[in-house]
What does this fold into?
Amino acid sequence: MAVELRHCSQSQSTTDRKSVSGTAYCHVMRIRSDWSLERLLEQARDVSPTESVRHAISVTLDFVASAPKTRFRGGRQLVELLQTAHKEANRNGDDPAIERLHDAIAYAEGRMIRIDIEEKYALFSGSRRDESLIRLASQTALIAAEYWTRVAEEYLEEHPDADAGQLLQRVRQIGAEAAFMDARRDRPGRYRIASGRSDMATWLERLFSERIDIEDARTAARRIVTSPDALEILANDADGRILLQAADLQRRRTGLMHLRKVVEDPASAERHIHNAISGQSWIFGGRFIGEAHRRRLVAGDEVDIPLLRADGSLHIVELKKAMIPVVRRHRSAWVPTADVHHAIGQAINYLRNLDEQRDRVRQDYWIEVRRASAIVLIGHPQAQPKVPELEISETLRTHNAHLSRVEVLTYKELLDAAERSLGEPDES
It folds into this structure.
């Protein structure tokens, strides 16, 4: 038997299983109570050497068997009784019961499957290991290995200079997002891992824990970020939109703080900056709708960040080191350094090659590259502490005025502009 538990505001009926009106939000948790759980509790009681633990488990078993109409009784009270018995086992150091009660809670809450419970504790005498389950486990391991191999190959193809630490970080990032996988209604049998959900879930969990009285903040946050219905409800509600906007704002602030830290680290190479800035196209302003999936549009050229405008046209970002000088003294004036001129030349070559293969790129990738533009990010005032920041900015701005399709910015100019776009942080 599975029982749905709902934590709702007073304006939402707990019997309404499909709709959430107004600002109400219902958190649903399915509590499972069945023969396998009963057998596991009986086994935990039998192996426990502690009278108080056996008594707590017996109380739980009596509750399970007390349903007037169904074979097994569940609900939040069942979980609370299991937790009480688990705490008593912990207090007495009753290891056999501790493990079984821990798994019983996970099973009741749907975090452990019936097959695992029955196999692990041999709950039913005379049962054999199901060979089909072994094949399933083997096939699952094979699919997982193939998937992560493909992830690694795609990442290394896009980041040929990446080291083992960066690859592991990418794997961990996808692993965190996998916890919030969902199934799209328009594509049966297909599952989706959407980026950014782990950050939003962490923020929502913190918000629920610290400011809103919700018993299971983690599960509530997980349900919101994985449920299209919950997100639609929030998006269609004035207060819900504020909540989502606040979550996105917090995610952007966190990403910007990390990027600034990487940029201002003298040891950071271009690949470190690229890893920190990837996926944060908002930093470059509202003209762009995101990044193109392919970085190699023309043979021999791989751009650092390919941004797309709303009309499908391309804007490329060329990343260079941050902690290098970008201006030098020439007679009585400041002029760009050779590193700046080299980066501009590289960007111009990219644009020329894109112009020459415009038709093929548009046909193959549906990206308009004719008269595409570029931005070169290079340098930081901290790399030249003896040169006034205003002189650096004015020198590059004067140089940009003589360029038509390429703009040069320091990382500090970009990050400061992005931070201003976020507004002042709420200190309340």
In short: Residues 33-121 form one domain. The first helix runs from residue 35 to 47.
